[in-house]
Write a structure and sequence with these properties.
Elements: H1 16-30, E1 36-42, H2 53-56, E2 60-68, H3 74-83, H4 93-102, E3 109-115, H5 125-135, E4 139-146, H6 151-160, E5 164-167, H7 170-181, H8 183-186, E6 194-195, E7 198-199, H9 204-210, E8 221-223, E9 226-230, E10 234-238, E11 244-249, H10 264-271, E12 296-303, E13 308-315, E14 318-325, E15 361-367, E16 370-378, E17 389-391, E18 399-403, E19 409-413, E20 421-426, E21 431-434, E22 441-445, E23 448-454, E24 467-470, E25 476-479, E26 490-496, E27 500-505, E28 511-512, E29 518-523, E30 533-545
Parallel strand pairs: 3-4, 4-5, 16-30, 17-22, 18-23
Antiparallel strand pairs: 1-2, 6-7, 8-9, 9-10, 10-11, 11-14, 12-13, 13-14, 15-16, 18-19, 19-20, 20-21, 21-22, 24-25, 24-30, 25-26, 26-27, 27-29, 28-29, 29-30
Domain VWFA: 1-181
Protein name: VWA domain-containing protein
Length: 546
């Protein structure tokens, strides 16, 4: 169970941790006495400051070893442990998987991971999951992405034969934690991201590498610009780039229990009101015609984070088809009820201060539909202005700083030269560096050594903001200049916990500023390397020296 600092975000509605606690309690209370259940958490013993990363990446706690719920006081003890969780620190998912697996016996066993983001420690969880599966073939790991559809969580489940589901709010989280427990029952059900480990947004090459018996592209049926490939009682619709845009099971059933033959009222009961049909269907060449016996097509939100919708065909009031598509209208996507980049826009992390309207904003202007903001946190002598807040110092480790761009420095902990912080300032005795927490907060390092010369290890093409926000999703990305995978066609520039990375195509800027919105180029920060996908930005923040 994730108890990292991001679980304090107030968007569930209410704090995410409260929704997670309620979901965990529902599982604990709903299982029979003979069920064997334990509880592991991470992020409770350290804060999330950069200097706490080393300790935070080992911050995994076993709150209860797995024993029968009916044994003396175990169920009550589990509920008490869940109730006492206080999120604070990092997200060491890989290490938590190892510790949880170590508590389980050989043979049939399961882990359910509830998290709102990616591993924050550079330790690839999918690789850890694969190793654990090899050690115990009976182990399955299911993952629940709360307010996130990160490929990292999907990979963990896919690699171990588990189930990956997303949840956009507290009610969905409660039901989908229960769904993650019933892996066998739900293996053939549509999840908000895909079916049977094949997700909307997956590339053909990755699918065929994971499924040796997946048909060749030439075996598919052409529908206009799209190709439909049938595999295990399901039609997968690929666009011209070889990416899945629709999943059409032959006998539709969702992980939440909606099935062909149900009434339309049942869909509304589970998923809420219908949403508008997209301006252009994911498969405009005849997707509706492919829904046999259908007189009307309705759309419901599947996952705001993944941008997916349930496309439900009906005959009268009876559901005849259920299709998952990458076609959620922008008006229904994550963060759609936030302002489109205006002065009152707030970041999704509670109190983070990413784009707050405050006295320390030097400048704000609209360029097209993207808001450009400039902060001036550092004074002429290199110190942090009193209008901003310090984080730390968390320890006395030596940090090495070197001039980087203009008057900004790059700094790194002496033991970890590859994990640099950028957009730092120093007065020669102390250094302050921008952090993922946003424009208000800066990490302070008291024990520093300033070295001569200029850091030329990371050369980027302007413009180079420190933080950017994605239109319609609420996702915020922080300049980090690295990722856990290499691409031949791009350099990683910005990371967002649970959302992947924004990349700079080789020889180009990380942003196209020529359109109505600034555009970044998105791809996972871990695992696979699908084609870069453009994302429109509604806000960017630059730093300037006083």
């Amino acid at each position: 169970m994730d108890a990292s600092a991001s679980m304090l975000t107030d968007d569930a509605p209410g704090p995410r941790i409260d929704a997670a606690k309620a979901a965990a309690n529902g599982l604990i209370e709903g299982l029979p006495d003979e069920a064997v259940l334990g509880l592991v958490t991470y992020g409770t013993s350290t804060d999330d400051a950069p200097e706490s990363q080393a300790a935070g990446c080992q911050d995994v706690t076993t709150l209860a070893e797995p024993v029968e719920l009916g044994s003396d006081g175990h169920r009550v003890a589990l509920l008490a442990e869940v109730g006492g969780l206080e999120p604070r620190g990092y997200t060491p998912i890989a290490e938590s998987l190892r510790q949880a697996a170590g508590l389980l016996p050989e043979g049939d066993a399961a882990i359910i991971v509830v998290s709102d983001g990616e591993d924050a420690c550079g330790d690839p969880p999918c690789e850890a999951a694969a190793e654990l599966k090899e050690q115990n073939p009976g182990l399955r790991i299911s993952t629940v992405g709360f307010k996130t559809a990160t490929p990292e969580l999907a990979c963990i489940a896919r690699t171990t034969g588990g189930l990956f589901v997303t949840a956009d709010d507290a009610d969905q989280l409660a039901s989908r934690v229960l769904a993650a427990r019933d892996t066998d029952q739900n293996a053939a059900a549509l999840t908000p991201t895909g079916l049977g480990g094949i997700d909307v947004g997956a590339h053909y090459n990755d699918i065929s590498a994971a499924h040796d018996d997946f048909p060749g592209q030439g075996d598919g049926v052409t529908e206009g610009d799209y190709t439909v490939i049938t595999y295990v009682d399901c039609d997968y619709v690929f666009d011209g780039d070889g990416v899945v845009v629709e999943v059409r099971p032959h006998d539709g059933r969702t992980v939440d229990g909606l099935t062909v033959g149900d009434s339309l009222d049942r869909a509304t009961e589970i998923y809420g009101d219908e949403v508008d049909a997209p301006a252009e269907a994911a498969n405009s060449s005849g997707a509706e015609e492919a829904m046999k016996g259908t007189s009307n097509v309705r759309y419901f939100v599947a996952s705001r984070e993944a941008g997916t919708a349930w496309k439900v065909g009906t005959d009268g009031d009876t559901i005849t088809d259920i299709v998952l598509c990458e076609c959620l209208p922008p008006s229904a996507s994550a963060g759609s009820d936030t302002n489109g980049g205006g002065a009152e826009w707030m970041a999704p992390v509670a109190g983070s201060g990413y784009f707050e309207s405050t006295s320390y904003r030097q400048d704000s202007r609209m360029v097209g539909q993207t808001e450009i903001m400039v902060y001036t946190p550092f004074q002429e002598d290199g110190t942090l202005s009193s209008e901003f807040e310090e984080i730390g110092p968390g320890n006395d480790e030596l940090w090495v700083c070197q001039r980087w761009r203009g008057d900004f420095y790059s700094c790194y902990q002496d033991e970890f030269p590859d994990a640099k912080s950028y957009f730092c300032s120093t007065n020669g005795e102390t250094a302050w560096c921008a952090t993922p927490r946003g424009g208000r907060y800066y990490a302070r390092h008291n024990n520093i050594r300033v070295i001569e010369g200029r850091d030329t290890s990371l050369r980027m093409i302007d413009p180079l903001p420190v933080w950017v926000s994605v239109k319609g999703t609420g996702a915020t990305y922080y300049f980090q200049g690295r990722a856990d995978i290499d691409r031949p066609d791009a350099t990683p520039v910005y990371l967002s916990q649970g959302e992947g990375a924004l990349w700079a195509p080789t020889g180009q800027s990380a942003f196209d500023t020529s359109g109505e919105f600034w555009t970044g180029y998105h791809a996972p920060a871990h695992g696979t390397t699908p084609p870069l996908r453009p994302l429109e930005l509604d806000g960017v923040v630059f730093l300037e020296m006083d």
